[in-house]
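Run log, item B.
One chain of 77 residues. Sequence copied directly from the ordering sheet:
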Amino acid sequence: GLDAIPAFGPDALVLSLGFDASEHEPLGYLRVSADGFARAAERIAALRLPAAIVQEGGYDTERLGALLARFLGAYAA
């Protein structure tokens, strides 16, 4: 989990942000809510490491923008 990252001592993170884990994805099974993505963003940001965030996955195009905005808002807070 995220708790192991500081022990590894990375200089930066590359985050593959897949919204196909969303609860709204018709083919998905992980069922992550917008709040869940926001909490993950907060935990990742708390590591205080430079990060490259690559958005991938997520096929419910009507919700992608809102999910990304929620994640980035929590990450930047």
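Observations after the first pass:
- The chain has a mean pLDDT of 94.
- Residues 1-12+26-59 form one domain.
Flagged for discussion on Thursday.
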